[in-house]
Design brief:
With 205 residues, the chain is α/β, with parallel strands linked by helices. It contains seven helices and five strands; from the N terminus they run αβαβαβααβαβα. Helix 6 links the parallel strand 4 and strand 5.
């Protein structure tokens, strides 16, 4: 091996050693917990595949639980941060708050507290926004959607405005939902990852 090639190899190995381990913690509800899907087909599992394909060194911890609210996520986050020490936190919560008719002010406070708690540990935060069906009323729907952007802006966090863009608002949206009309089918999850990936990739650079 020539001296130049040897030096190049040493520099490459050194770079690998110095590359910090990155852990992406996903804290979500049924939309991230593969509800009604076969294991490994949800957008979080697809995210792991995308990271490998892009040769980005990062592991993914999916701490999502079906039915979870922002309050549930907030109550669990402290222990999850201590256990996994994530470099990045994806918060995909809020939809169940709306389904249960919880006050928007409470949901927004929970999202704020989770964002700030993660940032205090040095983690970068990506908020995943949701929208509610028209039958909730225009005023409520507008305020609910704005809640996510308000938290992101106030705390300088990243934002995906609508996880189900291209799924729930498509020309034939019913085809991309399971029989309950709430949970997306397997075919919808690549679209969901497509909504998340551009913003997450920016944070991973």
């Amino acid at each position: 091996m020539t001296g130049l090639a040897q030096a190049s190899t040493l520099d490459s190995n050194k770079a690998k050693v110095n590359t910090p381990a990155r852990t992406i913690l996903v804290l979500g509800d049924s939309l991230s917990a593969e509800y009604g899907l076969k294991r490994g087909s949800g957008w979080v599992a697809l995210l792991e595949q995308r990271l490998q394909a892009e040769k980005i060194q990062a592991s993914v911890v999916n701490a999502s639980i079906s039915g979870h609210t922002t309050a549930g996520g907030r109550s669990r986050l402290g222990a999850l941060l201590a256990q996994h020490r994530p470099s990045h936190l994806i918060i995909e919560l809020g939809g169940n708050d709306a389904l249960r008719g919880l006050p928007l002010e409470l949901s927004q406070d929970n999202l704020t507290q989770m964002t700030q708690a993660a940032q205090k540990t040095g983690a970068k935060v990506l908020l995943i926004g949701m929208q509610v069906p028209p039958n909730y009323g225009k005023d409520y729907g507008t305020r609910f959607a704005a809640m996510f952007s308000a938290v992101a802006k106030a705390n300088k966090a990243a934002l995906v405005p609508f996880l189900l863009k291209g799924v729930a608002d498509g020309p034939d949206s019913t085809a991309l939902f399971q029989a309950d009309r709430i949970h997306p089918t397997e075919a919808a999850h690549p679209v969901m990852l497509g909504n998340v990936w551009p913003e997450l990739k920016k944070l991973l650079k």
